[in-house]
Specification:
Structural class: alpha/beta
CATH architecture of the largest domain: 3-Layer(aba) Sandwich
Radius of gyration: 23 Å
Largest sheet: 9 strands, mixed
Strand order of the largest sheet: 2-1-10-9-11-12-13-14-15
Helix content: 25-40%
Strand content: 15-25%
CATH topology of the largest domain: Rossmann fold
């Protein structure tokens, strides 16, 4: 019998005074984190919740989030973390769909969570620095099976209502073990991130591996590039994790930080979206730090493939399958593709979800009886077996019968010296079926024109891949992790621009 709190318990017993969470004002030892988690679990048990009951958690990346998360786990309940920026209707949807018994919300959030709770008859507890530590009576850890659902994370998807991916105790513990093994995590590591912990990247690739290894975790409640760079220096980070837009933002931050501040940083982990080669090369040039890219999804507890720490980064590739995991690229008939052939990525391993909450048909559409998860991502392997993610199946642009992979076009646009952000999407076209459009953000004061952008693309790409519509914006819409949200781009303006 196991519990997600087990790694913290082991370190609390073996090295109680080691730092578990490192803050700018206050540190938490493993003993303090363990005791606070059990105290929070006691409060949940005292409220009458039963094993398997769902508890909503809405909080920023802070020590109190970790206490509540682990306390919910220790009590044997199922944690359902959601975005702190969620609107009331979005919260109400999750409250109803997940059949939430209790909501725990950070005290500085707006009224959305309280209003949603009142509308659905769900009690809401405010999470503060004080309420995370008591005074309440600690309880014992609830024994769970590895196959028990212990977290439900809602995936946004590209169409339809969000689906809740059921992650088991075994999924989260395996994610921590695989992450620690892949990055060689240990008790001397100081890991830091600006990722939101309510997202699987923060939970599966950062929080769980840190606690498995016994190192410390530094958190930013909200990502800020200058603050992140300062945290590297202040906490002498050895491991850092983020998404491409974060590395890009740090590159352009006007901070007094250079490679000397990164001397102790042994690994930087990137995921959530494809890392443009130009960003990776520029980051290494400025800070002397190599970024290792990985690939995973909410449904795989953030793990699938990762660049080997010994071989180093292979720019443009996310590496091979992580330990205890299989990854394949398959064609339309289900055959494994040879190197260089694009197909759909499939993953099998101990981090693959149990299934979608109350969605048996959706589950069977992506999860085979023998455990293979169909990702919906297009990829290809090279001669070494390393995976390159080409794009989402649904993001593929078919222009006049030719496949255009937005990621390939974006890579070229990012190589332009004045382009800071880029998103390539398909828009309807009467003749070609779809036309290639680019939405870009450029450096302040840049005089780059649409003709300059298309000209740059023409020098690097085949004619059918060149964006015929270019729109300039101050910044692109992003999700909670900083990942660019193509679905939030207003296509009506692009269509109108194409017609003019």
């Amino acid at each position: 019998m196991v519990n997600v709190l087990d790694p913290v318990t082991r370190h609390a017993e073996a090295n109680p005074d080691n730092i578990a969470i490192r803050g700018s004002q206050q540190h938490w030892t493993y003993r303090q984190l363990h005791d606070a988690s059990l105290t929070f679990a006691g409060r949940i048990r005292g409220a009458g919740l039963n094993i398997g009951d769902r508890v909503l958690l809405v909080a920023p990346s802070a020590a109190e989030f970790v206490v509540a998360y682990l306390g919910i786990q220790a009590a044997g309940c199922v944690v359902v973390p959601v975005n702190t920026m969620s609107a009331q209707p979005e919260i109400e949807y999750v409250l109803e769909d997940a059949e939430i018994e209790l909501a725990v919300a950070w005290h500085q959030l707006g009224p959305a969570i309280h209003d949603a709770g009142a509308a659905r008859g769900v009690p809401v507890w405010e999470l503060t620095e004080e309420s995370a530590t008591g005074p309440h009576t600690p309880t014992s850890i609830t024994d769970r099976d590895r196959s028990d659902t212990t977290a439900i994370l809602y995936t946004s998807g590209t169409t339809g209502r969000p689906k809740g991916a059921q992650l088991t105790v075994g999924n989260l513990l395996s994610a921590g073990e695989i992450g620690a093994e892949s990055s060689r995590g240990n008790s001397s590591d100081r890991t830091g991130t600006g990722l939101p912990l309510f997202h699987i990247f923060g939970q599966g690739s950062v929080m769980m591996p840190t606690f498995i290894g016994g190192g410390s975790l530094s958190l930013l409640p909200r990502f800020d590039p200058a603050a992140m760079l300062e945290m590297v220096r202040r906490d002498q980070l050895t491991v850092m994790a983020g998404v491409p837009t974060m590395w890009n933002a740090m590159l352009h931050a006007a901070a007094d930080v250079d490679s000397s501040d990164f001397e102790q940083l042994r690994i930087a982990i990137s995921g959530g979206a494809s890392l443009p080669g130009e960003v990776a090369r520029a980051f290494e040039a400025r800070f002397g730090c190599t970024i290792l890219e990985g690939y995973g999804l909410t449904e795989t507890s953030a793990f699938g493939t990762f660049n080997n720490i010994d071989r180093g980064a292979k720019i443009g590739y996310t590496g091979r399958a992580v330990p205890r995991t299989l990854a394949e690229v398959r064609d339309h008939d289900g055959n494994v593709c040879t190197a260089g052939i694009v197909g759909e990525v499939f993953i099998k391993g101990p981090t693959v979800m149990k299934g979608y909450w109350k969605r048996p048909e959706d589950t069977s559409a992506v999860l085979s009886p023998d455990g293979w998860f169909r990702t919906g991502d297009l990829g290809e392997t090279d001669g070494d077996g390393d995976l390159r993610i080409v794009d989402r199946v649904k993001d593929l642009i078919i222009r006049g019968g030719y496949n255009v992979y937005p990621g390939e076009v974006e890579e070229v646009l990012y190589s332009h010296p004045d382009i800071i952000e880029a998103a390539v999407i398909g828009i309807p076209d009467d003749y070609y079926g779809e036309e290639v459009a680019a939405v870009v953000a450029v450096r302040p004061g840049s005089s780059v024109t649409a003709d300059d952008v298309t000209g740059w693309a023409r020098d690097h790409l085949s004619a059918y891949k060149i964006p015929r519509v270019v729109q300039f914006v101050d910044s692109l819409p992003k999700g909670s992790t900083g990942k660019i949200l193509k679905r939030s781009i207003d296509r009506t303006e692009l269509v109108a621009q194409k017609q003019n």
